[in-house]
Amino acid sequence: MKSISYRDVDINGGFWKNRQDINRTVTAGAVYDRFYDTGRIDAFNVNWKEGNPDKPHIFWDSDVAKWMEGAAAILSKEDNPELEEKIEWLIDRVEENQLPDGYFNIFYILFKKDQRFTVRSDHELYCLGHFIEAAVEYCLVTGRDRFLRLMEKYVDLVYDIFCVNNSAGFTTPGHEEIELALMKLYRVTGNRKHLELAIFFIDNRGNNNGEAPSPYNQSHLPVREQFTPVGHAVRAGYLYTAMADVAIETGDEKLLYACEKLFENITEKHMYVTGGLGQTHVDEAFSLDYFLPGETAYAETCASIAMVFFCQRMLELTGDSKYADMIEKQIYNGALSGISLDGKSFFYTNPLSIDLDNRIKDGNSSGEDWFPGEDRVEVFSCSCCPPNVLRFIATMGSNIYGREGDCYYVNQFISSKTDRISITTDFPSGSVVNIKADVKELRVRIPEWCDKFECNKTYTTEKGYAVITDTDGEITVNLNMTPVLLEANSLVLDCAGKAALTYGPVVYCIEGVDHGEKLSQLYLDGRLKANTEYDEYFGTRVITADGYKKINQGLYSRYSSSNYKETRLKFIPYFGFANRGRSDMQVWVKVR
Ligand code: FUB
Ligand code: ZN
Asked: What is the mean pLDDT of the chain?
């Protein structure tokens, strides 16, 4: 199956139209302005001098490149001369400052011109990767290829250095990203060198070619022998995406097998219920099987976005709905929680539990505790996530439809239109999805969380899709969503005796701001007596459910059910937490 690009899909109503409007009218400008304030834009003049503020950082280029890619995607839907001018200004600076042999990296040109490609961890190839992605997108959207040509020249240089002269100090990037970008480039240029270079970086990883094998950047083993996710979660996600990309292009069965195993292992042993990836702040990394502490979750926004990229490729490779299920989990939870409802501020890490009183890191503790941020902020010193969210929301349309010959796929339930199909729905608040499709065969995903999938047409099922051949008239699907309680495997110590409330794909949480007491005093009634109602502020439903408040009797007391007073708990969508001030929060709530 091939996904239909967001460029050919218009999201025209409902939840995601609202989020895209905010992305376009608020986020694009807000991220740019913060990058401007922090010197990231001015850095493109490549004239920073000692004594000036805002010394350029090794991967600022990538922050701005991601912004350019997101802005280009926004331009595909609407003329915006101001945005276009900003992108063109940045391209002018790249052109002006690119070295004659094609090299461009602000930090290296300023400070380490003679040491290019000597330090593996310095992100030169990572930055180039993001520039390539931006250049491809800008070219596809505007038809103008100036930026693309500049990057192709740089890629030619990298090809010579790595594949022909072997003159770099390392063979594979310290932070993956260029591999997937080269695959995008190859798909627009058709230039075999771009594919070869991507394969070179993938095949050499873990082969011990002079660089220390390290799980941190997934070079502990050759990629075809990697079945368990290790190391830095964003790096891993970008690598797995590129592995799947190469498998798509070359039919490499071993790569596909490794990707399938990695997906299985990630989702069965290493992922938070929100889709969050990165179990520990140490190395921003995957960790032991079933080690999923909520309060110290790393769950970087970029890692969830990388998982979406990986699943997009796996979905194309296999046509299996489980990858679209995972995309859905990420887009409504782990990735979406990365941005505030007003579109201006961001989480880098996404905890599943916050107890503000327990955060003693600044006070009388040993200072060794680490906790994720409790507030979203507008810009970070390491600001990879904000522009990633920008491009992720701007390109949301690419997740909705797929096609293979005469057969079309509906992968996500988002009000939208492409040439031969349209969807109208108020999902994820509502359960009904209306589809019009002028196609021979339509495959509609049956979500893994859906217990009662109903359709007004007869269908067979294959790989998690309802296969509909009578496509005349309107196709109406009812997903019959109700609140559902999830429990975790008992090996997840942090979740013992607790449940997480979901409604369709959306994971919910309780916040201190709605309860006025310590959340640790609250219990959910496991019989689940819940009501839902649409809430304008969150753009989907909130849920109230029966529960209990524990009345404490001193430090210890005899266990007695009379200590538990009936109360109602209010659940809000997890993606919306921390929007109403700093507050305690829990996804996993104790059950009795
Ligand atoms: O190193 C570049 C990016 O910054 C990584 O992907 C993020 O985890 C953050 O460390
Ligand atoms: Zn990030």
From this structure: 97
